[in-house]
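Let's do one together. I've listed all components of the complex below, 936 residues spread over two lines.
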Amino acid sequence: MNDTYDVIVIGAGPTGENVAGRAVRGGLSTVVVESELVGGECSYWACMPSKALLRPVAAAAAANHLRGVTGARLDAAQVLKRRDSFAHDWKDDRQVAWLESAHVDLVRGPGRITGERRVKVGDTELTARQAVVVATGTRAVVPPVLAEVTPWTSREATSSHGVPGRLAIVGGGVVGCEMAAAWQALGARVTLLARGGLLDRLPRFAGDMVAQGLRAAGADVRLGVSVTKAARSSGTVTLMLDDGTTVEADEVLAATGRAPRTDDIGLESVGLTPGSWLDVDETMRVRTGDAPAGSNDDDWDTSDWMYAAGDVNHLALLTHMGKYQGRICGDAIAARARGGEPTVTDRSSKTCVPQVIFTLPEVAAVGLTDEQARDAGLRTRVVEYDLGNVAGASLLRDDYTGKAQMVVDEDRTTIVGVTLAGPGTGELIHAATVAVAGEVPLDKLWHAVPSYPTVSEIWLRLLETYGL
Amino acid sequence: MNDTYDVIVIGAGPTGENVAGRAVRGGLSTVVVESELVGGECSYWACMPSKALLRPVAAAAAANHLRGVTGARLDAAQVLKRRDSFAHDWKDDRQVAWLESAHVDLVRGPGRITGERRVKVGDTELTARQAVVVATGTRAVVPPVLAEVTPWTSREATSSHGVPGRLAIVGGGVVGCEMAAAWQALGARVTLLARGGLLDRLPRFAGDMVAQGLRAAGADVRLGVSVTKAARSSGTVTLMLDDGTTVEADEVLAATGRAPRTDDIGLESVGLTPGSWLDVDETMRVRTGDAPAGSNDDDWDTSDWMYAAGDVNHLALLTHMGKYQGRICGDAIAARARGGEPTVTDRSSKTCVPQVIFTLPEVAAVGLTDEQARDAGLRTRVVEYDLGNVAGASLLRDDYTGKAQMVVDEDRTTIVGVTLAGPGTGELIHAATVAVAGEVPLDKLWHAVPSYPTVSEIWLRLLETYGL
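Okay, and this is what the predicted structure of the assembly comes out as:
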């Protein structure tokens, strides 16, 4: 079988779906190639099931921390069933139906690039008139020390049909922290092991509050430790740590990082290295050859037919950023197919990436930390405020504790980064994202009055603390 | 006793406190005059107690609408006690302590203006070197037809120590809707009577959803009706309606509007009309004389010593807008005392007023409705999206229903208004407020990527629906 399309997308996760949707909207015939489930990691083993596990936990906690509400209890079996329904019982009929409704063709199987504009899927040879887009995402990396005990990865942690008795989690990043919060609340006895602190890419208070929340929930959080040996014996895993202590568990979750799913997609056929992240320009075209000396990416050669969007380009490993890049990528391919150049290019993947971590308390951040901003040469000022002192927060929860930090570019007097930690902060961060992406000067933000008494009044307090 | 200050503020509600705090920060000696409790209506009989009543109701509802959480119940007595603590048991020690810490003097008693820059409080004659600020707020208006049954006003509705058996509420505005939601959930059998629909100043879907929510909770919502007669007999109030039906209740709440508390503050001594709203310029200086012909407010005379901030100027009857005006007012007085003119003036009270209505579901809005925008001569386009179709909303609650509407100024391609109705929308509106106040063009908003899977992804859906 031999088929020709304008666009071939390898990977039918949210990124690939957005590329395809936008390419079709731009008048291009499009096929997506998927070796597993249409909908990708996010739909079945990441965002959706993990948040389906965490939302009831957060809602019960919110109710139980309010005088006047009593008796809210979690029913773990029902939480797992709710999670199953959000993962559509790991069937992709709905997503396939969406592809059909969007006039996107689907070829199932592993896609391998076999040369310029050519992709092979089993016996099917696909040819692209315009572009091949790699949107294959990432997989969990299992460190060698854990490999022999066949640990859970994020997939098993989000899809498990039972609550483990004792769960050891290795890794203090987002996956480790979220799964620790979920499974501890659902009845597991969780031990969380991190080499450094928790959520180390964010300002320290965020990880500190998450550690505090996990410990208050009964989890054993051990920071600054590494696993030196792991062994499984009659169902029990024993982890030996570099501080001389051991941890016993029924299951171990390896939450120690992600690797690009590019090892078996034929990169070698076009002179790229299998297993590598794919560098891209601001329209998601893949960079070829070596990086130029100095930092001027404009001198870097780009492919005229190969694109990479989402996790696989290593810019921002988050579903919403993959979707954003997917929209830009699909539009760019369509613009070039018409002989033009895209007018909308990626402005956010490096400097305005929002993220919500659905722990208890939640953590939400966007933009640059102070350290990142200074490394980028900005003259910054950091403003912090105790979220618990906002009237809306004290109403939200009797024992509200939280913190907000904003990083101001003093030369432009705009906000370049915000970090929030506290219950309910997940929906607060978008106001910051608008301020950062919109480059709204502080003296204009002053007229964006937050409603009283909402937690959003943190904005007034931050600006007052700045000196407005 | 005869005292001279730079600034005299009549009214120690949130607005007056902000005027005073900013005036002192500007180096001015300041006294506030308060006839009731320092902290004002908001602290004891409005925002704080009403939201203290409503927050447990919302938290219990959130828990009970999630598969996997069971058993959340309201304990009305404890909810009332929590409310008491948020109202500080109607004692103002804490607020008095704040005034002291801010170096603001306090004179208790009713303040009456007796001439230019002069205010009398009992036997005390106060003189202002710079300014007298009227920040006396509003009181509930009881319509004549209800007067003889001595109804509750917002004060009794927010401070009641018991749950009435049957509560009739007259008025479908914010107070009526919020109190209906609170007391129905706490055990009263509520009948809500509105002359039109509910929340008539907002797009219709908002009031429709609130009516639906109240009815689902068991309240009797009757729209398009007026009370023609009211009588109380052995504890029971009977209301006769213009549709021929009657309502019996144990208590009646008159939630039919507000009037300025200016009837007894000596306005006549300076040529103004007692009981009138006080028109102001964009620095909160009171307009004197008659309004100029046409619409050019710049030709309107303003007082050089008398200011009015908060509810009393009728611009936006909301605590946060009063505080905003208070900051502008205090800063303006300080700037003029230094011989300058203020650099920050009111930009939001007419076109960027946010409001959250803590009903079930919540309603949140900012800026202009389509009708208001067209009346202002803008060429608009309205975009709507079903909030329940956002992944983050379906995670938040099993049966999420809600709606979002954005009004775009097509000439500037900026957002001039947003209305949201649905659970949890109260904290979503600030992103809209930032977009409206920041005048962020849609093509820049496109790069403010909302986090997946949060309810804030409504932003992506609105922009996609617009055509981006």
